[in-house]
Amino acid sequence: MDTALDRAVRVFCERGYHATSIGDLTAAMRLATGSVYKAFRDKQAVFLAAFERYATVRREQTRSAAARGANGRERLRHMLLSYVEHSQGIEGRRGCIVVGGAVELAALDPEVRARVNAQLETNESFIAGLIREGQADGSIPAHVVPEDTARLMICITQGMRVVGKARLPLDGDRLVGVAMKLLA
Amino acid sequence: MDTALDRAVRVFCERGYHATSIGDLTAAMRLATGSVYKAFRDKQAVFLAAFERYATVRREQTRSAAARGANGRERLRHMLLSYVEHSQGIEGRRGCIVVGGAVELAALDPEVRARVNAQLETNESFIAGLIREGQADGSIPAHVVPEDTARLMICITQGMRVVGKARLPLDGDRLVGVAMKLLA
DNA sequence: TTTATTCGGAAACGATCATTCCCTATTATC
DNA sequence: GATAATAGGGAATGATCGTTTCCGAATAAA
């Protein structure tokens, strides 16, 4: 079932919510129509489950990428680099279900909007935490405002997914090199 | 007709492409079904026309906002501030048709993807130009790389539209204050 | 005044959508 | 070994989609 959900994630990432038919889902999940409706109340429920699954996986990936840094500043650098990588190539082309949910459904579905907000705020808190760690270990100046910088970095990461979906190339080292100025 | 197209822009911004039915369009444009198909080949053509209309208006708004600055650095500051304002409140909630096109259609419609790319690259060139102006007038250090910084700023602006659509509040002065560090 | 033409409006079309229902295996229980 | 219960597969359903077609009104030409 989790593997079926992973396949649903891919379809929703690639095609978004409205362009994904139940037929697309059953084909991707290798499940019949009836089976999908046995497991989920309706299409929105499939989307919400896929959303949570995606968010969980991405949270872990982001955290493990950050963990590779030796101090707060380096952890932020690795996190940003990880975001660029995921915004590029096949995965970048496929897209992010959080960005898709925000753009396609935030205005139409309060339930989805709440999940998107929760995910964005969780990420923002994580980034702000990394900044504070950096200030504690001396790798980031004290005058950096964690909340403001974190919110701008959220804009950067979400924007990278948009640009990546449009297939503009992103150079990780150069982009992150510039972005690290925000911690000066 | 241009006023009808403006109404179509609003609907496509708010609901995206697939969630907007011809019925939604005719209601918003105050046109009958037949009249829409007299003026446009199909739904995609309406979207492309709305896209171009939106892009043109936004280009002018961005340029006139930038023009309020006395030097390159100040022009960039005003441009970023303008983007935050447009990403907030009613207009932010409504959304950006370029971001919507990128997220919802870039993977499915090569024609839309080409328009999105063109719009992003135009904006990026404009920003890179402002940076070079700032370097020429001494308001921006010479070691700033125009292309890399411009691409990151594109990520920032597109990301702000995503975050604004999710209805997270954005503080213009604080956000732009942080972003201006990229020009240090 | 009459005729031809253009323009907008609404009904009708086939296709596709999300959803429901029913049937068939398979497993577990007694 | 028989039976009840459950999970999965696929056809049927009503609604809605994008699109086409036809009709009437308004305008311009004759």
The poorly predicted ranges of chain A are none
Quaternary assembly: homodimer
> For the residues shown, what is the average pLDDT of chain A?
96
| Strand percent estimate of chain A | under 5%
Shape, principal axes of CA atoms of chain A: elongated
Of all chain pairs, the largest interface belongs to:
A-B, 50 and 50 residues
Cα(first) to Cα(last) distance of chain A is 46 Å
Main pleated-sheet profile of chain A = none
Fraction of helical residues of chain A: over 70%
Q: Classify the secondary structure makeup of chain A into a structural class.
A: mainly alpha
Please compute the radius of gyration of chain A using only Cα atoms: 18 Å
